[in-house]
Amino acid sequence: MDEPTSGLDARAAAIVMRTVRNTVDTGRTVVCTIHQPSIDIFDAFDELLLLKRGGEEIYVGPLGRHSSQLIKYFEGIDGISKIKDGYNPATWMLEVTSEAQEAALGVNFAEVYKNSELYRRNKALIKELSTPAPVHGLPMETTLVVLEKPPIHCSETAVYNIHSHNVWNYFWDLGSKRKKKQDVFNAMGSMYAAVLFLGVQNATSVQPVVAIERTVFYEKEQQGCCVELPNLLIQTLVYGVIVYAMIGFEWTVAKFLWYLFFMYFTLLYFTLYGMMTVAVTPNHNIAAIISSAFYALWNLFSGFIIPKTRIPVWWRWYYYVCPISWTLYGLVASQFGDIKSQLDDNDQTVEEFVRNYFGFRHDFVGYVAVILLE
């Protein structure tokens, strides 16, 4: 609370602080900044964080009954005058720690505090309370906050289920058909549709959430909270297993894991892109407009509508900076880039066709994975 008693008369200020005190007595922690508190208001506090000009700490600790511990601490410093009977401890504290008093005594109260037993006790308490580090509790806390928004997660789940059903209807067993060029195009089309549709859905759905909780998100970001990672992993596993089986891709451990890998990091970079657009724009409405422009460019330079080998040289640089192009490269090259069977309508193998037409090489899949990680 920022100066809850400012602008109030003595009676109103007392009522406010009594309410704050009652809240604290229920076991909650309340932090207040107070400007020139009276004796009664100052006595309502349990602990004090006192800063000098510049933000350095000069006292952090309990006040004690009638500010006894605060008074004892400052009176223990050489040259500090004793407090007079009935004098306001808050006023006395500010007077004896002023810049003029520091200059007169030739001391730095921040250094005095850092060399005190009180400082060492505080550091020991911080170390004790920080063990073990809260790296597991913070993601769980943020996960619970995210799960408190069931409409968002229900809509995402519904979208994934609907898309899986569409895959069942339109792309059933396309991955096992490799006799014609069109079969390869169809299989790549299923990948392209999944990447673009689900990626845009993830980026769009996360924007209003981040916009509403932007301040909290920044705080959690500093604490290393990555709540989206497990959520996206679950989405990838559920969607990937169902769709991989429906499309009929080759069931080998390496190809299946590559499929999950590229789908996971694709959903991740779309989600993070949605967060970024909210962070650099005033609100999520403008973020959605800006995002749409990039979706159109990514769609055009993804390598599906126009393969890399047919993009004009002076525009090919954008293909290399388009994230979807690397996703499709990894998916197609890992699934079809090592197939030696001959195409019926072409004198090339599937591997040669994928390399010559799309520019995808199976031996480059590892490098593609590194590029997506970066």
Can you offer a commentary on this structure?
- One of its GO terms (cellular component) is plasma membrane.
- The chain crosses the membrane at residues 232-249, 256-280, 286-305, 317-336.
- Keywords: Membrane, Transmembrane, Transmembrane helix, Transport.
- This protein has 374 residues and is an all-alpha fold.
- It has two domains: 10-129, no CATH class; 137-373, no CATH class.
- It contains 18 helices and two strands.
- The chain has helices spanning 10-25, 39-43, 68-75, 89-96, 99-105, 109-114, 117-129, 137-147, 150-170, 181-212, 214-222, 228-247, 253-279, 284-300, 316-321, 323-336, 350-358, 365-373, and strands spanning 47-51, 57-62.
- Strands 1-2 form a two-stranded antiparallel ribbon.
- It is elongated.
